[in-house]
Amino acid sequence: MWTARNSEGYEAPAALAVDTVLLTARAGDLLVLATQIDDGHRALPGGLVGAGESPEDTARRKLAEKTGVTDVYVEQLAAFANPGRDPRGWIPSIAHLALVPPDTKPRDPDAAWITARGRHRWAFDHHDIVRTALNRVEGKLWWSNVAVGILPASFPLSKARTVYEAIAHTHYDPATFARDLKATGLIEPTGETSAQGPGRPAALYRFTTRDPSWGAGRRKRMAT
Amino acid sequence: MWTARNSEGYEAPAALAVDTVLLTARAGDLLVLATQIDDGHRALPGGLVGAGESPEDTARRKLAEKTGVTDVYVEQLAAFANPGRDPRGWIPSIAHLALVPPDTKPRDPDAAWITARGRHRWAFDHHDIVRTALNRVEGKLWWSNVAVGILPASFPLSKARTVYEAIAHTHYDPATFARDLKATGLIEPTGETSAQGPGRPAALYRFTTRDPSWGAGRRKRMAT
DNA sequence: GGTCCTTTTGGTCGTTCTGCCTAAAAACAG
DNA sequence: CTGTTTTTAGGCAGAACGACCAAAAGGACC
Lengths: 224, 224
Description:
The structure is a homodimer of 224-residue chains. By secondary structure, chain A is an alpha+beta fold. Chain A has helices at 55-67, 126-140, 157-168, 174-183; strands spanning 4-6, 17-26, 29-36, 42-43, 46-48, 73-80, 93-99, 111-115, 155-156, 187-194, 202-207.
């Protein structure tokens, strides 16, 4: 059982942790990176925040260790600090949300992509963290450029639609989706076209900005 | 300079803090409770989380000390844990958002209501925390029953409109506001009417639920 | 080349939502 | 009783939304 005391003699947190919900979308499914724990439970990738380090930096550092990916979309989710959440001691965790392209391979042999909405036996309060992450990314989908984290620099609208459908967990009409996403002003055509497979070649688009920023998008009612 | 070490010998946070953005709306203005610090800066009410205490409980305990109010709407905002945010040492803070009715009086003589959107000289990173709180409450306004925290159990639509206008920082047409708020399903008529002052007496409404819950409301696009 | 199939994409149509407006209902002041 | 004020119901035009249709533009196969 970890404990700590500060220089005033009062009890202090034993450590400050970070847990990251790393999401991606593949074949219409939303996936989350999870490591396997000895007792069969799943756990989110995370680690301890070092002195002089910001929690977001910790999240990025740990993600780089687990997947080798750098330049990831990372944002803070919430703090999970209820007493007893970690059996090792008083260890608050600052949960983060991160998104990566679907071709990202885990470097850690114990880590694997599992369905984000499937029922899994999560360790600690990680089930709550995952649920919070899903709510967050769903809510932001049409109001921001979160999908930037999953999509490559240049993409056809059908690819974007697959990602949006995986996140929103619904089905969009292709024509309507194209009209609405273009209307948000979040994307712009690159001028290029791609033609792999049958069918008319699709025009490629890019996000007008790859910097994550709230409130950039517009409209689109919530799914009923 | 506060420091702490855990039982493994590694450096740990010196303490875990809570800062609360306590908001209310009065006369069309959004107000925040701030205490005055020696050097003239403003600071948010807050305190240290005790061992075995949840941060939200800490926020409620501190608010009760400062204002005497219990049964407050409190939700977690975000963690502010950048190194150097607190000159006293490594002290992450979990910021909270709280809402109270406008007749709440501060008990602490150093605490006072100040305009939430005014330019003030905030201490530490409290300016960021206030801004985050304003964004949060604005975003949730039409999608949840956050306004429950400010409005009394029973209220006329004009009162609700004043609160909504203070939060959204816009002006709503009275007729349109009534139509739209009723359409959200968040409120229901009590059957009573109130007639103070001139004009047709207003029907009184209550929230269908006073439990804070995300996603209960519907529609209403973002303000352009 | 010709035919069929596939996917993209522009447009239409009816429904719903939104912002603005008008006017009636229902109180108070003089 | 007459004017004033506030609430509240309803109308109307424009925008947004969802579903659909059809043309465009490629590949696959004969």
